[in-house]
């Protein structure tokens, strides 16, 4: 393969990692209460390019701004480069636009929150918007590897039940992400001292922060069950299609890790490293689900990849219940 595409693959991987650092950095800012580390000043820090009074919160907030700015430049370069190099791949141009636009939007929301302040319900959207940008960059990277024949997801067959799982779970996962972000922004992470119940002496929450926390736990519990069902379905019917089979196995392992770190956040009294790991696992999970969505949309656009037969003809046993 030509050298330019080889270089593009490396740059795409580095950009994907940079976007992951943006996500984790945003979670770090929220969890350490550093969102106003630079005061009500943006893009300057306390109205200065080089602040005089250096605090841990200032370092965290300023570092996140610098990483986000660098990632924005990298995403812009990647979008233009991928557009020119692999623009013939159908999804490339759409993902190139989405990755950069959503990164800009999340930056503007962050800036508005610093300068004017925002409600917790609006701030909870910040992580989700960054997550879409990260997923778009990840998918763009995978498309580049596909164009280079490094990975292959050709000749897929997805029946209606599997497409239902993919569409439903990724939409629902975004709701779970929002409820988790709302927990952080409302400072409800330790509202319930017990797990999985809110308290050992009662079953139901009694005040707002407890309802926020338990709402997220319920949403997270349901997605664990749903992904387990989808992974079992893939194990039964899609072993011959490794990208689908292993995609769901990885998704199941990631959602288990996300659930475990969520419980450890309570048991460790909001240990910072555990909390960041919790954000890391949900970011990776959303990336995997986004790739499965891309594959499902491809088979939807290309019916020839799906099994088709005359009305009334019986499906083979291996495909009948897919």
TrEMBL record:
Entry binding sites for heme: 216, 278
Catalysed reactions, semicolon-separated: Fe(II)-heme o + 2 A + H2O = Fe(II)-heme a + 2 AH2
Transmembrane segments: 7-29, 66-83, 95-117, 123-145, 166-183, 214-232, 244-267, 273-297
Cofactor: heme b
InterPro entries in UniProt: COX15/CtaA_fam, COX15/CtaA_HemeA_synthase, HemeA_Synthase_type1
Localisation: Cell membrane; Membrane
GO CC terms: plasma membrane
EC numbers: 1.17.99.9
GO MF, one example: heme A synthase activity
Annotated function: Catalyzes the conversion of heme O to heme A by two successive hydroxylations of the methyl group at C8. The first hydroxylation forms heme I, the second hydroxylation results in an unstable dihydroxymethyl group, which spontaneously dehydrates, resulting in the formyl group of heme A.
Protein name: Heme A synthase
Organism: Geobacillus genomosp. 3
Gene behind the chain: ctaA
């Amino acid at each position: 393969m030509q050298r330019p595409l080889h270089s593009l693959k490396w740059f795409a991987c580095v950009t994907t990692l940079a976007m992951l650092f943006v996500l984790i950095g945003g979670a770090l800012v929220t969890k350490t209460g550093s969102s106003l580390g630079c005061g009500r000043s943006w893009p300057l820090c306390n109205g200065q390019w080089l602040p005089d009074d250096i605090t841990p919160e200032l370092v965290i907030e300023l570092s996140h701004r610098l990483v986000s700015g660098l990632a924005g430049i990298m995403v812009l370069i990647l979008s233009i480069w991928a557009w020119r190099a692999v623009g013939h791949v159908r999804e490339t141009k759409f993902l190139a636009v989405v990755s950069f636009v959503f990164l800009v939007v999340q930056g503007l929301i962050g800036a508005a929150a610093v300068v004017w302040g925002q409600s917790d319900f609006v701030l909870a959207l910040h992580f989700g918007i960054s997550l879409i940008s990260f997923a778009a960059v990840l998918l763009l990277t995978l498309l580049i590897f596909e164009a280079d024949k490094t990975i292959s997801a050709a000749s897929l067959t997805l029946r209606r039940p599997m497409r239902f799982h993919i569409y439903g779970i990724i939409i629902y996962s975004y709701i779970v992400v929002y409820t988790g972000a709302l927990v952080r922004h409302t400072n409800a992470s330790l509202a319930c001292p017990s797990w999985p119940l809110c308290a050992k002496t009662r079953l139901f929450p009694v005040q707002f922060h407890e309802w926020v926390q338990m709402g997220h736990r319920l949403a997270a519990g349901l997605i664990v069950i749903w992904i387990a069902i989808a992974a079992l379905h893939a194990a039964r019917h899609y072993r011959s299609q490794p990208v689908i089979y292993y995609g769901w196995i990885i998704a199941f392992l990631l959602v288990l890790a996300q659930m475990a770190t969520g419980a450890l956040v309570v048991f460790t009294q909001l240990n910072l490293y555990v909390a960041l790991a919790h954000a890391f696992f949900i970011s990776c999970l959303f990336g995997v689900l986004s790739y499965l969505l891309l594959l499902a949309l491809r088979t939807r656009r290309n019916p020839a990849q799906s099994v088709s037969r005359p009305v009334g003809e019986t499906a083979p046993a291996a495909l009948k219940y897919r």
